[in-house]
Amino acid sequence: MNTMIAYAASTNSVAGISCGGGITNLTSFINYFTCTLMNAVVPLLMSLAVTAFIYGIIQFFLNPENEEKRKAGKSYMIWGLITLFVMVSIWGLVGILSSTFIPGGSAVIPNLPQ
């Protein structure tokens, strides 16, 4: 009988880099900055983009007779979607690059048969 154990990921790390500890050198400062960016700024920007998109939907549907407000609503919806797309794309690209270049990451290096 095989037993499988699953370990939960630490909530205080980003891309395998620990977010805890004090700032003692340049590497720890960069780690702290990265963690702050990933844990605070990115969710805030994502929520602002979703809010802009929803605001555009509301403006578009609540003003069927006012063409100016419908046009503004379309603009909010388009820019909200573009912003979300760009942020998710960059997030995915950062994930790919960090798993490729961080030592001990989850990148798989194929081995050729001998």
Write out key terms for the chains shown.
mainly alpha, 63% helix
Can you offer a commentary on this structure?
This protein has 114 residues and is mainly α. The chain has a domain at 25-101. Helix content is 63%, strand content 4%. It is built from two helices and two strands, in the order E-E-H-H. The chain has a two-stranded antiparallel sheet with strand order 1-2. A hairpin with a 2-residue loop joins strand 1 and strand 2 (17-18). The longest helix is centred in the middle third of the chain and has 37 residues, at 26-62. The radius of gyration is 21 Å and the shape is elongated. The two termini are 33 Å apart.
What is the structure about, briefly put?
It contains 2 helices and 2 strands.
